[in-house]
Design brief:
Length: 273
Protein backbone atom coordinates (compact mmCIF):
# COMPACT_ATOMS: atom_id res chain seq x y z
CA UNK A 1 0.00 0.00 0.00
CA UNK A 2 1.14 3.50 -0.76
CA UNK A 3 2.26 4.98 2.62
CA UNK A 4 0.33 8.18 1.90
CA UNK A 5 -2.94 6.25 1.63
CA UNK A 6 -4.91 5.23 4.72
CA UNK A 7 -7.92 2.97 4.96
CA UNK A 8 -10.02 2.67 8.10
CA UNK A 9 -13.55 1.68 8.98
CA UNK A 10 -16.15 2.80 11.48
CA UNK A 11 -19.01 0.38 11.83
CA UNK A 12 -19.87 -0.60 8.27
CA UNK A 13 -18.30 2.53 6.78
CA UNK A 14 -14.89 2.12 5.15
CA UNK A 15 -12.98 5.18 4.02
CA UNK A 16 -9.88 5.51 1.87
CA UNK A 17 -7.97 8.77 2.14
CA UNK A 18 -4.91 9.94 0.25
CA UNK A 19 -3.34 12.08 2.96
CA UNK A 20 -3.13 11.83 6.78
CA UNK A 21 -4.57 15.34 7.19
CA UNK A 22 -7.70 14.21 5.38
CA UNK A 23 -8.15 11.43 7.95
CA UNK A 24 -8.53 14.04 10.68
CA UNK A 25 -11.11 15.97 8.63
CA UNK A 26 -13.08 12.81 7.92
CA UNK A 27 -13.05 11.83 11.60
CA UNK A 28 -14.40 15.27 12.50
CA UNK A 29 -17.18 14.79 9.93
CA UNK A 30 -18.08 11.42 11.42
CA UNK A 31 -18.08 12.82 14.95
CA UNK A 32 -20.39 15.70 14.06
CA UNK A 33 -22.65 13.36 12.07
CA UNK A 34 -22.98 11.29 15.24
CA UNK A 35 -23.67 14.38 17.36
CA UNK A 36 -26.37 15.67 15.03
CA UNK A 37 -27.99 12.23 14.97
CA UNK A 38 -27.84 11.90 18.76
CA UNK A 39 -29.10 15.33 19.76
CA UNK A 40 -31.41 16.16 16.83
CA UNK A 41 -32.24 13.77 13.99
CA UNK A 42 -32.95 10.69 16.11
CA UNK A 43 -35.45 12.52 18.33
CA UNK A 44 -39.09 11.95 17.49
CA UNK A 45 -40.02 15.58 18.20
CA UNK A 46 -37.37 17.01 15.87
CA UNK A 47 -38.62 18.81 12.74
CA UNK A 48 -35.99 20.17 10.37
CA UNK A 49 -36.14 23.80 9.26
CA UNK A 50 -37.09 23.10 5.66
CA UNK A 51 -40.04 20.93 6.70
CA UNK A 52 -41.18 23.65 9.09
CA UNK A 53 -40.91 26.25 6.33
CA UNK A 54 -43.05 24.07 4.08
CA UNK A 55 -45.65 23.81 6.86
CA UNK A 56 -45.82 27.59 6.99
CA UNK A 57 -46.33 27.68 3.21
CA UNK A 58 -49.05 25.02 3.44
CA UNK A 59 -50.90 27.13 6.02
CA UNK A 60 -51.12 30.10 3.64
CA UNK A 61 -51.05 28.70 0.09
CA UNK A 62 -53.96 26.80 -1.41
CA UNK A 63 -53.58 23.83 -3.72
CA UNK A 64 -53.94 24.91 -7.34
CA UNK A 65 -52.56 28.41 -6.72
CA UNK A 66 -50.30 29.96 -9.35
CA UNK A 67 -46.93 30.33 -7.59
CA UNK A 68 -43.79 32.40 -8.09
CA UNK A 69 -40.54 31.28 -6.47
CA UNK A 70 -38.01 34.12 -6.31
CA UNK A 71 -34.42 32.90 -6.21
CA UNK A 72 -35.52 29.44 -7.32
CA UNK A 73 -32.05 28.43 -8.50
CA UNK A 74 -31.41 24.83 -9.55
CA UNK A 75 -33.67 22.01 -8.40
CA UNK A 76 -34.17 22.01 -4.62
CA UNK A 77 -36.51 20.74 -1.90
CA UNK A 78 -38.66 23.85 -1.75
CA UNK A 79 -39.34 23.99 -5.49
CA UNK A 80 -40.18 20.29 -5.43
CA UNK A 81 -42.63 20.90 -2.58
CA UNK A 82 -44.24 23.93 -4.25
CA UNK A 83 -44.77 21.90 -7.42
CA UNK A 84 -47.10 19.60 -5.42
CA UNK A 85 -49.34 22.62 -4.74
CA UNK A 86 -49.60 24.10 -8.21
CA UNK A 87 -47.64 25.33 -11.23
CA UNK A 88 -44.44 27.09 -10.15
CA UNK A 89 -42.80 29.90 -12.09
CA UNK A 90 -39.19 30.55 -11.09
CA UNK A 91 -37.19 33.77 -11.24
CA UNK A 92 -33.49 34.09 -10.44
CA UNK A 93 -30.52 36.30 -11.27
CA UNK A 94 -28.59 33.17 -12.27
CA UNK A 95 -29.17 31.01 -15.34
CA UNK A 96 -29.06 28.03 -12.98
CA UNK A 97 -32.82 28.50 -12.71
CA UNK A 98 -33.20 26.96 -16.18
CA UNK A 99 -31.87 23.68 -14.75
CA UNK A 100 -34.72 23.47 -12.24
CA UNK A 101 -36.96 20.83 -13.81
CA UNK A 102 -39.69 21.27 -11.15
CA UNK A 103 -40.56 24.69 -12.58
CA UNK A 104 -43.27 25.18 -15.17
CA UNK A 105 -41.43 28.32 -16.37
CA UNK A 106 -37.96 29.72 -15.62
CA UNK A 107 -36.94 33.37 -15.98
CA UNK A 108 -33.78 35.32 -15.26
CA UNK A 109 -34.07 38.92 -14.06
CA UNK A 110 -31.96 41.79 -12.77
CA UNK A 111 -32.74 41.11 -9.11
CA UNK A 112 -35.09 44.11 -8.85
CA UNK A 113 -37.81 44.28 -11.51
CA UNK A 114 -39.74 41.01 -11.79
CA UNK A 115 -40.46 40.23 -15.47
CA UNK A 116 -44.20 39.67 -15.02
CA UNK A 117 -47.45 41.66 -15.42
CA UNK A 118 -49.31 43.09 -12.43
CA UNK A 119 -51.48 40.89 -10.21
CA UNK A 120 -50.67 37.56 -11.84
CA UNK A 121 -49.67 35.27 -8.91
CA UNK A 122 -51.68 33.86 -6.01
CA UNK A 123 -48.54 33.44 -3.91
CA UNK A 124 -44.82 34.25 -3.95
CA UNK A 125 -42.12 32.32 -2.08
CA UNK A 126 -38.46 33.00 -1.37
CA UNK A 127 -36.01 30.80 0.52
CA UNK A 128 -32.79 32.46 1.75
CA UNK A 129 -33.16 35.49 -0.54
CA UNK A 130 -34.07 38.55 1.56
CA UNK A 131 -30.62 38.70 3.17
CA UNK A 132 -29.13 39.37 -0.29
CA UNK A 133 -31.32 42.38 -1.08
CA UNK A 134 -29.53 45.67 -1.60
CA UNK A 135 -32.89 47.46 -2.01
CA UNK A 136 -35.54 45.70 0.11
CA UNK A 137 -38.23 48.32 -0.46
CA UNK A 138 -38.05 47.68 -4.23
CA UNK A 139 -38.29 43.94 -3.60
CA UNK A 140 -41.39 44.18 -1.41
CA UNK A 141 -42.96 46.66 -3.82
CA UNK A 142 -42.45 44.23 -6.70
CA UNK A 143 -43.94 41.41 -4.62
CA UNK A 144 -47.03 43.51 -3.99
CA UNK A 145 -47.28 44.43 -7.68
CA UNK A 146 -47.26 40.84 -9.01
CA UNK A 147 -49.54 39.42 -6.30
CA UNK A 148 -53.26 39.23 -6.85
CA UNK A 149 -55.41 40.95 -4.19
CA UNK A 150 -55.40 38.65 -1.17
CA UNK A 151 -52.21 36.97 -2.39
CA UNK A 152 -49.49 35.98 0.10
CA UNK A 153 -45.69 36.12 0.19
CA UNK A 154 -43.96 33.40 2.26
CA UNK A 155 -40.24 33.62 2.99
CA UNK A 156 -37.38 32.25 5.08
CA UNK A 157 -34.30 34.36 5.80
CA UNK A 158 -31.58 34.70 8.47
CA UNK A 159 -32.24 36.82 11.56
CA UNK A 160 -29.98 39.89 11.75
CA UNK A 161 -29.51 39.39 15.51
CA UNK A 162 -28.22 35.81 15.32
CA UNK A 163 -24.56 35.37 16.31
CA UNK A 164 -23.57 33.96 12.92
CA UNK A 165 -25.15 36.84 11.02
CA UNK A 166 -23.59 39.40 13.35
CA UNK A 167 -20.18 37.79 12.81
CA UNK A 168 -20.69 37.43 9.06
CA UNK A 169 -21.71 41.06 8.63
CA UNK A 170 -18.45 42.20 10.26
CA UNK A 171 -16.30 40.23 7.81
CA UNK A 172 -15.27 41.39 4.34
CA UNK A 173 -17.02 39.39 1.63
CA UNK A 174 -13.65 37.96 0.53
CA UNK A 175 -13.20 36.38 3.99
CA UNK A 176 -16.80 35.19 4.00
CA UNK A 177 -16.14 33.43 0.70
CA UNK A 178 -13.19 31.55 2.20
CA UNK A 179 -14.98 30.20 5.26
CA UNK A 180 -18.71 29.95 4.51
CA UNK A 181 -18.67 26.85 2.33
CA UNK A 182 -16.20 25.14 4.66
CA UNK A 183 -18.46 25.70 7.66
CA UNK A 184 -21.46 24.49 5.67
CA UNK A 185 -19.46 21.43 4.51
CA UNK A 186 -20.07 22.25 0.86
CA UNK A 187 -17.48 20.49 -1.34
CA UNK A 188 -14.66 22.47 -2.89
CA UNK A 189 -15.83 23.86 -6.20
CA UNK A 190 -19.39 24.46 -4.94
CA UNK A 191 -21.09 27.79 -5.69
CA UNK A 192 -19.81 30.70 -3.63
CA UNK A 193 -22.37 32.52 -1.47
CA UNK A 194 -23.86 35.71 -2.89
CA UNK A 195 -23.08 39.02 -1.12
CA UNK A 196 -25.29 39.67 1.89
CA UNK A 197 -26.67 42.99 3.17
CA UNK A 198 -29.22 42.03 5.90
CA UNK A 199 -31.19 45.24 5.33
CA UNK A 200 -34.58 43.65 6.00
CA UNK A 201 -33.59 40.90 8.43
CA UNK A 202 -35.39 41.75 11.63
CA UNK A 203 -39.08 41.51 12.44
CA UNK A 204 -39.19 45.30 12.86
CA UNK A 205 -37.59 45.88 9.45
CA UNK A 206 -39.97 43.48 7.71
CA UNK A 207 -42.96 45.23 9.31
CA UNK A 208 -41.59 48.61 8.22
CA UNK A 209 -41.01 47.59 4.59
CA UNK A 210 -44.44 45.96 4.44
CA UNK A 211 -46.04 49.13 5.78
CA UNK A 212 -44.21 51.25 3.19
CA UNK A 213 -45.52 49.24 0.21
CA UNK A 214 -48.94 48.15 1.45
CA UNK A 215 -48.41 44.56 2.54
CA UNK A 216 -49.82 43.19 5.80
CA UNK A 217 -47.82 40.78 8.02
CA UNK A 218 -49.91 37.70 8.76
CA UNK A 219 -47.34 35.50 10.50
CA UNK A 220 -43.76 36.31 11.54
CA UNK A 221 -41.75 33.70 13.45
CA UNK A 222 -38.21 33.53 14.84
CA UNK A 223 -36.90 29.96 14.58
CA UNK A 224 -33.72 28.30 15.86
CA UNK A 225 -32.97 24.83 14.52
CA UNK A 226 -30.00 22.46 14.67
CA UNK A 227 -26.64 24.33 14.56
CA UNK A 228 -25.75 23.61 10.93
CA UNK A 229 -22.53 25.63 11.08
CA UNK A 230 -21.34 23.32 13.86
CA UNK A 231 -20.84 20.53 11.34
CA UNK A 232 -17.25 21.55 10.77
CA UNK A 233 -15.95 20.43 14.18
CA UNK A 234 -17.29 19.17 17.54
CA UNK A 235 -15.60 22.14 19.24
CA UNK A 236 -18.11 24.36 17.40
CA UNK A 237 -21.05 22.00 17.75
CA UNK A 238 -21.35 22.00 21.55
CA UNK A 239 -21.47 25.76 22.23
CA UNK A 240 -23.81 26.20 19.27
CA UNK A 241 -26.09 23.50 20.65
CA UNK A 242 -26.14 25.21 24.06
CA UNK A 243 -27.09 28.46 22.30
CA UNK A 244 -29.90 26.69 20.43
CA UNK A 245 -31.29 25.22 23.65
CA UNK A 246 -31.10 28.57 25.44
CA UNK A 247 -32.85 30.74 22.84
CA UNK A 248 -35.59 28.12 22.37
CA UNK A 249 -36.26 27.67 26.09
CA UNK A 250 -36.17 31.33 27.07
CA UNK A 251 -38.97 33.34 25.47
CA UNK A 252 -37.33 36.78 25.87
CA UNK A 253 -34.37 35.50 23.83
CA UNK A 254 -36.47 34.59 20.78
CA UNK A 255 -35.19 37.70 19.00
CA UNK A 256 -31.77 35.99 18.82
CA UNK A 257 -33.00 32.85 17.04
CA UNK A 258 -31.34 32.06 13.75
CA UNK A 259 -34.07 32.38 11.13
CA UNK A 260 -37.14 34.44 10.34
CA UNK A 261 -40.12 32.73 8.72
CA UNK A 262 -42.86 34.97 7.45
CA UNK A 263 -46.12 35.27 5.56
CA UNK A 264 -47.28 38.72 4.46
CA UNK A 265 -50.40 39.46 2.44
CA UNK A 266 -51.60 41.92 -0.16
CA UNK A 267 -54.99 43.23 1.03
CA UNK A 268 -58.02 42.36 -1.09
CA UNK A 269 -58.80 46.07 -1.50
CA UNK A 270 -56.11 48.69 -1.09
CA UNK A 271 -54.91 51.96 -2.52
CA UNK A 272 -51.83 51.81 -4.74
CA UNK A 273 -48.55 52.17 -2.84
Amino acid sequence: MDPTVAVFSRGTREISLSHPAKISCQRNDMKTDYLFAKYYYSRSEFVDGTTEFHKLIAAHVKAGNCLLEIGAGPQNETTNYLATLGPVVGADISREVHDNVALSEAHTFDGIRLPFPDEIFDACVSNWVIEHLDNPSAHFREIRRVLKPGGVYCFRTPNRWHYFVLGSSLLPHSVHLRIANRLRRIPKGGRDPYPTFYRANTVACIRRFCSLVGLVPVELLAIEKEPSYGRWHPVLFYPMMVYERLVNLCGPLRMFRGSLYGAVQKPTTTNAA
